[in-house]
Specification:
The complex is a heterotrimer of chains A (305), B (135) and C (537). Chain A has 305 residues and is an alpha/beta fold. In chain A, 35% of the residues lie in helices and 33% in strands. In chain A, strand 1 and strand 2 form a beta hairpin. The N terminus of chain A is likely disordered. Classes of the chains: A alpha/beta (305), B mainly alpha (135), C mainly alpha (537).
């Protein structure tokens, strides 16, 4: 028992979130299926997945809104269900729907939220208020969608959270507000030791700011790792055969293929040298070898299974 | 310093930064001793992860394009490093490739292209002279 | 779907049926409580003097049932984008709404007649309900606020009050209810009002649909209000604790409207009584005497209505939008949205603090409610001094007065907290009705209307049910359950005693007091576990 405790302590220093073999069912539908995931301290962790893939359910476990049906979830080395004050007090959270109490004034909102966070930085809050051009006297329901998102972001940032959780932060927003949000993410991790976890459909945003990603599909972690290693391991190679082929010859490590005749295009996963060797093995030569965008990688990793 | 990040063609972002800085140096828009923006500033400007910029700067340092001075920041290293020259040749050869492909499309021979290059060079030189005499 | 109307009715039944049923149940609660209370006191309801009862209660049920239907149908603006002409659009909600309002009012009164052996008119009030709601529709359905809206509302109120006073005024002379009869002239006027309202509705929708701007005076008024709102500024005082911040939120969003709404209804009832009496009595001293009788009797309303407050209380739970409700929402359309939707659900607050904030708001509500009824009663008391007549309904029970006050206090508290707790425990949206019924049963028993062994068994069972669920939740979330176990022991004793036949009245009263105490105490600890159960899924 004591050895397990020391183990969890030592890992919680490097990992902000530790999820171990977590499963969750709603009725007969498995929303999460045996998920293990660690989110290291510092940096931006991007959570990618289609609609209904289980991203939100996973975030809910991290926020302590679901207890673990099987497996375990630890945030800052604590159980978020047993200790909502200790965990949520160190998290800044912005939801996709950006739901705020409509009747409050922005000033009321700040005053109300401040009561819950001992680390609330009033000076930083007013600085953000000015930067986002938010009027403390205006009511939340008078705010435009963009201003509302900014107010939500302000509330999530002003206590300088150790972990910032953003659920689809950019959906339905104009580019100016999106820049504000991405800027806030970058400023947050530029401070030593702070972590951002965000889920998004806009994969070019993820590609810009995330240094680690996890792809979730049908409740399973399909792919996880650092952005660099993932980008290095996916290639699109165009190969040329001496004679035209009716069907694409199978290539070791390929996920999908297209084309016809002499030239075929493969999306492959693996080391570049291995792929090239495999191409030579089927008697073809590499004409072109290019990187995949995160969009392509996402589609490829989902179609892999 | 103008850098543009494009996430559409799949090139890793740090590589885009590296090649664009190299390009700026080779084309003379950044010269020896110029200071590069701090990692955090550039990250906020380009809206990319600071770690990515740090990696790009590391690669540039290893390639001898920039040098880190203690406490001062990151600067373009002194001109004439063999690597910088190699890089220039690389950039130019890409351009020459494009030129040759287009020339081939337009049914121009290699000799004609070389002749054209010489012509343009002399006309540019005369323009430069005019400009200097005007000043 | 063959027709638009059919499609709308289908939508209504699928989406709003439960809510409308709940609202109609609430609408029926007040009359049923009143009638059963009077029956409990052994009053003969067929007395001619009590003709005031249907005269007052039927308009109330007409209003509440119509409101339920209107809320269920939603604003007309919902259909503006559908390919319908203005007349077609209006008739899709106008006539079905009126027919169902009339039918439900008739059904309600018919069921009271059946339950309590009354002889109240059924058909004519239903027809009046149709006419009244037809008159109210134009001002109710259209979003744009113009001065016309005020005129239209006045028109509707005139229709209602004309009918109401007409009926009441003739009470003395005919000794029966005038609106039991319905003449051809009435019929003609009624059809006229309905058709005129329909035409008005079509016109208003035609204006509203193409975005006719609101009138200048309204815009000015709005600007002035905004200006005033901005001038008032924002309080800079920081909250002392998480609980106080959450209490502030709960009070602002639900406690205040709850108490305010009840206050307004109470004031309107008093005004209505006063107006009726002034209208009907020429002699001042007799008028004052009647007034104090009417107002003095209101004092008992709080106790009689404790169940009603309990039934309303689960609505307070909304203030605590917790993850479970969101879960239900997202489970319905998991594939389409499935987002975490609550600012409040992610606020770092412990279950105990959350429960405390709710209990504080309930406590404030109970105090304010008691104060409101006390105020009404003191008016009656002053009037009774002025007319030198004994205070109505309490004259025989002056000695019991402190107990009645205490009962009202504790009863309201117990009803509201158990209602809220039950809704947290049960959780699902549609079960709010069930939670409300628990609050209602609790309060009805507490109000002392039926002091029978059977009711004590029911009360004890309710208590046991809650305790069992709470103990389960407490265990599940690793909380200590000593308090709940103690409460469970008390509940068991209560049941054991209650099952013994032939108890003396004093023993019964003692048991009764014990259960009241238990029911009032359980939520103090138990709400925390109920919150825990609801908050984490």
């Amino acid at each position: 028992m004591s050895s397990r405790d020391t183990h969890s302590e030592s890992t919680s220093l490097s990992n902000v979130v530790e999820i171990h073999r977590l499963s969750r069912r709603f009725g007969v539908k498995a929303a999460l299926d045996d998920i293990s995931l660690n989110i290291p301290r510092g940096g931006v962790f991007g959570l990618i997945g289609g609609n209904g893939a289980g991203k939100t359910t996973l975030l809910k476990h991290i926020l302590g809104m679901h207890y673990a049906q099987s497996g375990s979830v630890q945030v800052f080395g604590l159980d978020p269900v047993a200790n909502p004050v200790g965990v949520l007090g160190r998290i800044g959270y912005m939801s996709e729907n950006r739901d705020l109490p409509n009747w409050m004034k922005v000033g009321d909102l700040l005053r109300y939220t401040q009561a819950f966070f001992p680390t609330w930085d009033a000076a930083y809050a007013s600085e953000l208020c000015d930067m986002f051009d938010l009027d403390r006297k205006s009511r939340v329901h008078h705010l435009s969608r963009g201003q509302r998102a900014r107010a939500c972001l302000l509330v999530a940032l002003a206590h300088r959270p150790e972990l910032l959780v953003l659920d689809e932060p950019s959906s339905g927003l104009d580019p100016v507000v999106r820049r504000d949000i991405l800027g806030a993410v970058i400023r947050t991790i530029a401070d030593e030791g702070r972590t951002v976890l965000f889920s998004s459909h806009l994969l070019d945003e993820v590609e810009r700011v995330a240094d680690r990603i996890a792809v979730i599909h049908q409740g399973k972690v399909q792919l996880t790792g650092s952005m660099d290693s993932i980008k290095d391991s996916y290639h699109r190679v165009t190969v040329r055969f001496e004679s035209p082929r009716d069907q694409a010859p199978s290539l070791v490590g390929s996920i999908s293929h297209s084309g016809g005749g002499n030239e075929w295009c493969y999306v492959c996963c693996g080391q570049r040298e291995q792929v090239h060797r495999a191409v030579e093995a089927i008697g073809a030569s590499v004409v072109e070898d290019s990187n995949l965008t995160l969009d392509d990688i996402f589609v490829a990793s989902i179609s892999q299974n | 310093m103008q850098i543009h990040i494009n996430t559409r063609d799949g090139v890793p972002i740090y590589l885009q930064v590296v090649s664009q800085v190299k390009h700026l140096v080779a084309s003379g828009r950044l010269s020896a001793g110029d200071e590069l923006p701090a990692i955090r500033v550039l990250a906020e400007q380009l809206l990319v992860n600071p770690n990515t910029i740090a990696r790009a700067y590391r690669e540039l340092e290893q390639a001898g394009v920039v040098e880190k001075r203690r406490t001062a920041g990151t600067f373009i290293s002194a001109d004439g490093s063999p690597l910088a020259r190699k890089e220039r040749m690389k950039i130019l050869s890409e351009r020459v490739d494009q030129l040759l492909v287009e020339a081939h499309q337009m049914n121009l021979t290699l000799d004609e292209v070389i002749k054209l290059v010489h012509q343009r060079e002399s006309s540019l030189r005369s323009l430069k002279k005019q400009g200097e005499s005007n000043v | 779907m063959k027709s638009v109307t059919q499609a709308l009715i289908w939508e209504f039944l699928h989406q709003h049926l439960w809510m409308v049923l709940l609202l109609i149940a609430i609408a029926n609660t007040i009359p049923i409580l009143c009638i059963s209370a009077l029956k409990g006191y052994g009053v003969d309801l067929d007395m001619p003097e009590l003709a005031i009862l249907p005269t007052a209660l039927i308009p109330l049920v007409v209003f509440l049932v119509g409101m339920a239907i209107a809320i269920g149908q939603g604003p007309a603006a919902r259909h503006y984008l559908k390919p319908l002409s203005n007349t077609h659009l209006t008739s899709t909600f106008f006539f079905p709404g009126l027919v169902s309002t009339g039918a439900l009012v008739g059904l309600s009164i018919w069921s009271w007649n059946l339950l309590f052996g009354l002889h109240w008119p059924v058909v004519v009030p239903a027809i009046y309900a149709v006419i009244f709601w037809a008159a109210l529709n134009p001002s109710l359905r259209v979003a744009v606020k113009t001065p016309w809206r005020i005129v239209e509302s006045i028109f509707a109120i005139l229709v209602l009050s004309g009918w109401f006073f007409g009926a009441f005024h003739s009470l003395d002379k005919r000794g029966s209810l005038s609106w039991a009869q319905f003449s051809f002239v009435d019929m003609g006027v009624g059809i006229g009002v309905v058709l005129f309202s329909y035409w008005l509705c079509v016109r208003r929708i035609a204006d509203d649909r193409c975005g006719k701007v609101e009138s200048r005076s309204v815009a000015l008024l709005k600007r002035w209000l905004d200006h005033w709102d901005a001038l008032r500024g924002v309080s800079k005082k920081a909250f002392s604790s998480r609980t106080s911040a959450q209490t502030w939120l709960n009070w602002q969003t639900l406690g205040l409207p709850y108490v305010g709404g009840i206050g307004v209804v109470l004031a309107m009832l008093i005004l209505l009584f006063v107006g009726m009496l002034i209208f009907d009595n020429r002699d001042l001293s007799q008028c004052l005497n009647e007034m104090q009788r009417a107002i003095g009797s209101m004092f008992l309303l709080q106790i009689i209505f404790a169940g009603f407050w309990g039934l309303l209380a689960p609505q307070l739970r909304l203030s605590a939008t917790t993850s479970q409700q969101l879960e239900e929402l997202s489970e319905v359309n998991r594939s389409s949205s499935g987002s975490i939707d609550s600012f409040r659900a992610c606020i770092p607050i412990s279950d105990r603090e959350f429960a405390q904030s709710i209990l504080r708001v309930v406590a404030i509500c109970v105090v304010v409610l008691t104060a409101l009824f006390g105020l009404a009663w003191s008016v009656g008391w002053i009037l009774s001094l002025a007319t030198k007549t004994p205070l109505a309904l309490t004259d025989q029970q002056v000695g019991a007065l402190p107990w009645i006050v205490l009962g009202g206090f504790v009863g309201t508290w117990a009803a509201m907290t158990s209602g809220i707790m039950a809704s947290f425990l049960v959780g699902q949206d549609k079960s709010k009705m069930f939670a409300g019924v628990i609050g209602l049963v609790t309060a009805q028993i507490l109000a002392g209307l039926f002091l029978w062994p059977t009711t004590i068994v029911i009360a004890a069972s309710v208590a046991m049910l809650m305790i069992a669920t709470l103990t389960y939740s407490a265990k599940k979330y690793g909380a200590k359950s000593i308090a709940t176990s103690c409460a469970g022991a008390v509940g068991l004793i209560a049941i054991a005693l209650a099952l013994r036949p032939r108890l003396e009245e004093q023993v019964l009263a003692g048991l009764f007091a014990t259960i009241i105490a238990v029911l009032a105490m359980i939520p103090i600890r138990g709400l925390e576990f109920a919150v825990a159960k609801s908050r984490r899924h």
